[in-house]
């Protein structure tokens, strides 16, 4: 994805810092997964390498704008620009854990220390910086402490607290918020053109402003599982639908339906409790318990989902247990 949806404020901060002549050498773009952190990082890199900081580009309609026909834009899109490097997590030992390896970190450090091939800047984007192995993170510290001239390092992370405190203290942090519906809907129209307006709106709501999460839900029965969540919450006392719901949730042998259903169920509880606590109206089904009880139930459902996954318990029975917990207590 080369277009940026939303995040005009952070983009403007980056552009102003670059034009000021006092551009910090390291940045951290923090925010939930799938909201466009790497997209903003690439946008900044393209604009910077094309001479934007030096005033070599015409003013665009949006911050950090670079015409797609610009040679720098085309070469970066093709992965062929000599002054830009991107680090992403690789599959770790056993083929499961995704990590950024120390050898990749050291290669990026050497790259930043080299003279820019085109006489401008060197730019490194570390996408998913929280997945750096400890030795990879430590390797970056010296570069952060003694940055080479005309070199910029951008870290993106969905979990900034997992980064070393010494790294966090040496970067300029920009927090990116989830996408507003006005920004998310046109993006989903492009990414998921076959969906209806109602389906896109549902995905946007349950994905909480994350385009990446919305796409994952669309590709993994998210809409079907959300319909089951809505059905359950609309009639918490009605047990006649328990078994059909549990069977539908547990139908996939890989457990993906169960994981999605439980995540969406907990998300619905969390969103409803937040809304009620802010005085923005309470869902009718919340009235059966105090808000504190719903928060405790949210924790219990998380533990149930985790135990079912780790211990390979019966998923249908786990769903039935969850529905029993949701049933309003008798007064």
TrEMBL record:
Which top class of enzyme applies to this chain?
Answer: transferase
The family database entries (InterPro entries) matched by this protein are listed as: DNA_Rep/Repair_Clamp_Loader, P-loop_NTPase
Q: Which UniProt keywords apply?
A: Nucleotidyltransferase, Transferase
Asked if the keyword Transferase belongs to this entry, the reply reads: yes
Q: Which GO terms describe its molecular function?
A: DNA-directed DNA polymerase activity
Q: Which residues cross the membrane?
A: none
Q: Which domain of life is it from?
A: Bacteria
Q: What is its EC number?
A: 2.7.7.7
A UniProt-annotated Pfam family: DNA_pol3_delta2
Indicate what this protein is called per its UniProt record.
DNA polymerase III subunit delta
């Amino acid at each position: 994805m080369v277009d940026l949806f939303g995040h005009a404020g952070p983009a403007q901060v980056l552009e102003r810092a670059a034009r000021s002549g006092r551009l910090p050498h390291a940045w951290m773009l923090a925010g939930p997964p799938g909201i466009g952190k790497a997209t903003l990082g690439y946008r900044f890199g393209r604009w910077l390498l094309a001479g934007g900081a030096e005033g070599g580009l015409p003013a665009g309609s949006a911050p950090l704008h670079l015409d797609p026909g610009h040679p720098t834009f085309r070469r970066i899109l093709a992965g062929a620009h000599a002054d830009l490097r991107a680090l992403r997590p690789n599959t770790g030992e056993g083929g499961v854990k995704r990590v950024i390896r120390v050898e990749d970190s050291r290669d990026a450090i050497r790259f930043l220390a080299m003279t820019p091939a085109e006489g401008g800047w060197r730019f490194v984007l570390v996408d998913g910086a929280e997945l750096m192995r400890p030795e990879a993170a430590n390797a970056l510290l010296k570069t952060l402490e003694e940055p080479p001239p005309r070199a910029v390092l951008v870290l993106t992370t969905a979990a900034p607290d997992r980064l070393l405190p010494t790294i966090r203290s040496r970067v300029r942090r920009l927090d990116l918020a989830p996408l507003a519906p006005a920004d998310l809907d046109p993006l989903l129209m492009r990414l998921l053109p076959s969906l209806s307006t109602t389906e896109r709106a549902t995905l946007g709501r349950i994905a909480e402003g994350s385009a990446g999460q919305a796409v994952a839900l669309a590709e993994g029965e998210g809409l079907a599982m959300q319909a089951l969540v809505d059905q359950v919450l609309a009639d918490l006392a009605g047990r006649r639908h328990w078994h059909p719901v549990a069977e539908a949730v547990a139908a996939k042998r890989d457990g993906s339906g169960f994981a999605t259903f439980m995540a969406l169920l907990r998300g619905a509880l969390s969103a409803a409790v937040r809304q009620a606590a802010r005085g923005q109206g309470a869902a009718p089904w919340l009235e059966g318990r105090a808000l504190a009880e719903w928060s405790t139930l949210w924790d219990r459902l998380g533990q149930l989902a985790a135990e079912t996954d780790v211990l390979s318990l019966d998923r249908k029975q786990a769903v039935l247990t969850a529905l029993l917990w949701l049933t309003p207590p008798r007064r």
